[in-house]
Write a structure and sequence with these properties.
400 residues, TIM Barrel, Urease, subunit C, domain 1, alpha/beta, 2 domains, 14 helices, binds zinc ion
């Protein structure tokens, strides 16, 4: 039987409340009972700050074996997408393709866990399933991505992904969907996937308003993405684009909808987002920087009360999967944001965005969010939130 245990630290950050100095966290198994003050915190514990496991709300684990991102920093976005397609085609030719993919996913989960991540919003690609998703350390909320711009293929593509989802749901319980992006999914396929997600109360992520190239495509049906689809022979005689408004209207019907990136949303579209509490935006700071997009509209989103979660995106556009480094990047870029607010984005907001805040993202009784310890080289006498976002870290480890 699980015994009650106590974890002592100079500071505990419950996230759901203010930091607790000289803290004790009482648990049974992995489940939090309470966080309180203790007189037993020793000198040895003074360098340690504990907090709930971090939440990476958006990544693609299959790229986790890449040593460096694909393409070049600040290059054309459509060119990067082209290079990702080429990379995938090359991978698909390998005889041990699936083993390599499974091992990359596994590698990404291990890397995330070592960096303090307890919950991952993952985008999975064909054939979608992987044994690596069954992980004891990290909860992976898998969302099945589908592409298909040819409208006459919508039925077939939809049937294919539904069959995979039915199979995977039996084992993984909650499996979401991800119609990739307006330049890769026809409105017909998008609507079918969204309807299915609404019927099953599933989480849906969609890359939306990410780049100038995408905006040109949805607004004028021209530009680098139209040329790419033309080259791939995917534009039939009467093709349509799912514009941003259409995608937002579809997403808001879902139980939980994640707008991935949202770099180029208009003021009006942000107003629309604000009226749906089931919708969240996911900001991937270092990936944002890799592409050199215009400044992320963080202030406008926060002013409207729109939930912002944080993701690493994948190693195809980021050097690693270190979520804390994403939060440190936010601190450097948006200096007016309080450090407590930034830490919320990488914990409770991510868990809420993925619909898993009943268990993750904060130290509250009954949750099992993981107890992450961050050890510094020096004692943390004050402001543990700033320490997490600015001070050199000696090591991170799990205490539960
Ligand atoms: Zn992505």
């Amino acid at each position: 039987m699980n015994q009650q245990r106590e974890i002592l630290a100079a500071w505990a950050l419950p996230i759901s409340g203010p930091p607790v100095k000289n803290a004790v966290i009482r648990l049974i198994g992995h489940t939090i009972l309470e966080v309180g003050h203790s007189t037993k915190v020793s000198q040895a514990d003074q360098n340690v700050v504990v907090l709930p496991g971090l939440v990476n709300a958006h990544t693609h684990l299959e790229f986790s074996d890449l040593a460096t991102p694909i393409g070049r920093s600040r290059g054309s976005f459509a060119q990067w997408v082209t290079e990702v397609i080429q990379y995938r085609l090359l991978q698909d030719k390998l005889a041990d393709r699936q083993q390599r993919k499974d091992s990359a996913i596994d590698q990404g989960i291990s890397e995330s866990f070592a960096h303090g991540v307890k919950l991952i919003g993952e985008i999975a690609t064909r054939p979608w399933n992987s044994p690596a998703y069954h992980n004891d350390n990290v909860k992976i909320l898998v969302q099945l991505e589908q592409l298909g711009f040819a409208a006459n293929q919508a039925e077939e593509r939809f049937a294919e992904i539904e069959a995979a989802r039915t199979k995977m749901t039996k084992v993984l319980k909650d499996v979401g969907l991800s119609p990739h992006a307006p330049y890769s999914v026809s409105p017909q396929l998008l609507a079918k996937m969204m309807n299915s997600a609404v019927e099953t109360d599933s989480v849906v992520s969609m890359h939306l308003a990410e780049s100038k190239d995408e905006m040109q495509f949805v607004e004028t049906r021209s530009g680098p993405f139209a040329e790419l689809l033309q080259r791939l022979n995917l534009l039939g005689p009467d093709w349509h684009v799912a514009n941003i408004d259409f995608c937002l209207r579809q997403l808001c019907e879902c139980w939980r909808g994640l707008v991935i990136h949202a770099n180029y949303l208009s003021e009006r579209q942000m107003d629309f987002l604000a009226s749906f509490k089931n919708l969240s935006v996911v900001y991937c700071p270092r990936t944002h920087d890799y592409f050199g997009h215009r400044e992320f509209p963080l202030t406008g989103l926060i002013e409207r009360g729109i939930r912002i979660a944080v993701g690493t995106d994948s190693r195809a556009s980021n050097p690693d999967l270190d979520l804390l480094e994403e939060l440190r990047t936010i601190r450097r870029v948006f200096k007016h944001l309080s450090h407590g607010e930034i830490l919320q984005l990488g914990t409770s907001a991510g868990a809420q965005a993925l619909g898993l805040d009943d268990n993750y993202g904060s130290f509250e009784a009954g949750k099992s969010p993981g107890v992450l310890a961050v050890e510094f080289f020096e004692p943390v006498h004050e402001d543990p939130e700033s320490a997490l976002l600015t001070k050199p870290i000696k090591r991170r480890f799990w205490l539960d």
